[in-house]
Specification:
By secondary structure, the protein is an alpha/beta fold. The protein folds into two domains: 170 residues, Phosphoglycerate kinase, N-terminal domain (Rossmann fold, 3-Layer(aba) Sandwich), CATH 3.40.50.1260; 198 residues, Phosphoglycerate kinase, N-terminal domain (Rossmann fold, 3-Layer(aba) Sandwich). Helices cover 37% and strands 17% of the residues. The strands form four sheets. A six-stranded parallel β-sheet has the order 3-4-2-1-5-6, with helices on both faces. Helix 11 runs parallel beside helix 12. Bound molecules: adenosine-5'-diphosphate and 1,3-bisphosphoglyceric acid. 1,3-bisphosphoglyceric acid (X15) binds next to loops. It is found in: Cytoplasm. Monomer. GO terms for molecular function: ADP binding; ATP binding; phosphoglycerate kinase activity. Pathway: Carbohydrate degradation; glycolysis; pyruvate from D-glyceraldehyde 3-phosphate: step 2/5. Belongs to the phosphoglycerate kinase family.
Length: 397
């Protein structure tokens, strides 16, 4: 593996895997550009050396192939603005247009490929797809920390098609790993992990490993209701992964055995539909009526979580406490962000990561009141499990 800062990109086409999986609103405007902004130093260094850049990323989780909603064309204008130069776009990632545009790329130019996940081969880690991508450039830079926990074609499989001397991490990856290492080796207790959001089946498994590290685990957002149901609570139509209920039950038991306190939201803000104009009410999280769903933690939970956070010395946070994109369901995430900021002001070390979590912290004005903001959510949590992430291992191999 080569070193990014000493690598000379002059005359080279750098194929750079970035994580441009940014939140978009209904008009496809970017609501938080942290992940794009983070990659600018990497892109600028390659261009300043006299190289050219081919950017590749995923956006969301498209299931049906090419879909306008998930097109990376939505980020082209903003990226051009941030770079101060026009970025070209290929409406494909390995097809004729991508190949032609990549071949014609001149030093100083930037090309963005269409969403890699429009090909099912990407998530399957298909070697043929990875090799076709690899042919577009002559040096591979992985700067997608947020996706480093995925063993996909563009993050893990592709690296083998480049000589070790032409495989590198970009500045995002380097910075993220350095900061994560710092936390990994210096986590003062009480250590509180906050897990929320909506990727229940992905992140519930990570909780088990956190049991060896954390003294307290706060579970909020859509993640909470699978646990509430595992304790025989009534959750109405709240988000729930039924095939993870047994896992949740086991985790509750293991936490007790290990002396780790799992904090679930005792109450919730409930809604009659998943919409900004829903009718809302509040309820204990284990007595949510049929036809209603929990879309935020309630006031009792906010108070309880705040107390736990104020007593913490290390805080790791991934996943919002509610559907913060809608005003009616922002309060819990705001309250937790405030408590994390207050704990940080009192000397705790706090690390917040994940596309939506970072968007929330930015939106509520707390980004500079926490110790570190990571572009990765699941990736950051898996890094803390102590295992090498596939996207990192492949570049180092
Ligand atoms: N109670 C809930 N029900 C449904 N979705 C929720 C709930 N709470 C939070 N969410 C959603 O979770 C999403 C973020 O989850 P996730 O992707 O896991 O976080 P991150 O991007 O920070 O890693 C947000 O879009 C938010 O609206
Ligand atoms: O947004 C991401 O992760 P995150 O929600 O854990 O922050 C990454 O872009 C990975 O996306 P994925 O979880 O669909 O593989």
């Amino acid at each position: 593996m080569a070193n990014f800062s000493s690598y000379n990109f002059s005359g080279r086409k750098a194929l750079v895997r970035v994580d441009f999986n940014v939140p978009l609103d209904a008009s496809f405007d970017i609501t938080d550009d942290t992940r794009i902004r983070a990659t600018i130093p990497t892109i600028q260094k390659i261009l300043a050396d006299g190289g050219s850049v081919i950017l590749m990323s995923h956006l969301g989780r498209p299931k049906e192939g090419p879909t306008d909603k998930y097109s990376l064309k939505h980020v082209v204008d903003h990226l051009s603005e941030l770079l101060g130069r026009k970025v070209d776009f290929a409406a494909d990632s390995i097809g004729e247009e991508a190949v032609k545009k990549a071949a014609a790329l001149q030093p100083g130019q930037v090309l963005l490929l269409e969403n890699l996940r429009f090909y099912k081969e990407e998530e399957k880690g298909d070697p043929d797809f990875a090799q076709k991508l690899a042919r577009l450039g002559d040096v591979y830079v992985n700067d997608a920390f947020g996706t480093a926990h995925r063993a996909h074609a563009s993050t893990a499989v592709i690296a083998q098609y480049f000589e070790p001397a032409n495989r590198l991490f970009g500045t995002v990856m380097e910075g993220e790993v350095q900061s994560a290492e710092k936390v990994l080796h210096s986590s003062e207790k009480p250590f509180t992990a906050i897990i929320g959001g909506a990727k229940v089946s992905d992140k519930i498994l990570i909780i088990e490993n956190l049991l060896d590290r954390a003294t307290d685990i706060i579970i909020g957002g859509g993640m909470a209701y699978t646990f509430v149901k595992a304790m025989d609570g009534k959750i109405g139509s709240s988000l729930c992964e039924n095939d993870r209920i047994d896992t949740a039950r086991e985790l509750l038991k293991k936490a007790e055995e290990k002396g780790v306190t799992l904090h679930l939201p005792s109450d919730s803000i409930i809604a009659d539909k998943f919409a900004a104009d829903a009718d809302i009410s509040s309820a204990l999280s284990n007595t949510i009526p049929d036809g209603w769903m929990g879309l935020d933690i309630g006031p009792l939970a906010c108070d309880m979580f705040t107390k736990v956070l104020h007593a913490s010395k290390t805080i790791l946070w991934n996943g919002p406490m509610g559907v913060f994109e809608m005003e009616k369901f922002q309060h819990g995430t705001k309250a937790v962000a405030k408590a994390v900021a207050e704990a940080t002001a009192n000397g705790a070390f706090s690390l917040v990561g994940g596309g939506d979590s970072v968007a929330a912290v930015n939106q509520f004005g707390y980004h500079d009141k926490v110790s570190y903001v990571s572009t990765g959510g699941g990736a950051m949590l898996e890094y803390f499990e102590g295992k090498e992430l596939p996207g990192i291992a492949a570049v180092k191999a």
